[in-house]
Amino acid sequence: MNIQWYPGHMTKAVRQMKEDIKLIDLVIELVDARLPLSSRNPDIDKLAANKSRLVLLNKADLSDDRTNKLWTKWFKDKGFYVLEMNSKNGVGVKQVNGIIAEACKEKIERDRKRGILNRPVRAMVVGIPNVGKSTFINAYAGKACTKTGNKPGVTKGKQWIKLSKTLELLDTPGILWPKFEDERVGIHLALCGSINDNILNIVELSFKLINILRNSYCEVLKNRYEVDEKLKNMEVLENIARKRGCLLKGNELDIEKAAAILLDDFRSGKLGRITLEKPE
User: Fold this and answer.
1) Closest residue by Cα to residue 149 from 133, 160, 169, 163
2) Residues 7/151, Cβ–Cβ less than 8 Å
3) In angstroms, rounded to a whole number, what is the distance separating the alpha carbons of residues 245 and 38?
4) Among 36, 187, 232, 241, which is 20 to 30 Å from 126 by CA?
């Protein structure tokens, strides 16, 4: 299952970010805590070279708490400032100010010595589609500054947001990269909703999720759907379709609808806290 998705507007967005980075003091990168590596655009490291870096493990309420701690340590060991966050309900948002002050203290001190007292810290907020950038900015600002949505591609252009006299944020569109070298990256991104569902085979994608659940979270299918995880993938979907009344004309089972239910339950956290990747 080789998944690739790189709409044309992303090329334009990358070009614009390369221009804007010259104005930036800090890069705030949101990653999905369920897949911290797959949800990191490798181009961001090149783009943000020599800038202070803050990684927000967003949607941390949907991922394993123990694994969150492992990822926090992994990023800190690589020199990033890190914070677990759930931008939907605001958990972790209040801690951001202190971390920004710490990450940019050399810049602030440098300005003070030069007699520059009123220049705000400028932070660029980056991340892949549907990782929660706009939701984070709205929670951080305490008001609706940007459009949000539960599908990728809501933010199409850049937007400067002045939060205070000391801080300005630059919201940027979600960007992927032209080619996923590892097939698992595309699958993980698709599972978490960062790739347009319209280009995906939902049934085949649900099989990938069933295999992950069977290997790492074997009780989930039984607890949520009363389905034996030892069944074949199609049999699992057939059972879910029966339990949830997913029927077509003639009482034929609607396998696509059952697959969509399984994916939606994973994405919304109804299956429990599940992490797709662990630090090696």
Assistant:
1) 133
2) no
3) 34
4) 187
Spacing of C-alpha 198 from chain mean position:
19
What domains, with CATH codes, occur in the chain?
A: 8-171 (3.40.50.300), 201-268 (1.10.1580.10)
In one letter, which amino acid is 143? Answer: K
pLDDT tens for each residue of 237-253: 999 999 999 999 888 99
β-bridge pairing 167-171 and 159-164: antiparallel
pTM: 0.89
Q: pLDDT tens digits for 62-87?
A: 999 999 999 999 999 999 999 999 99
The residues near 80 (Cβ < 8 Å, ≥ 6 apart) are 53, 54, 55
Give the dihedral of Cα atoms 25, 30, 36, 38; nearest 10 deg.
Answer: -90
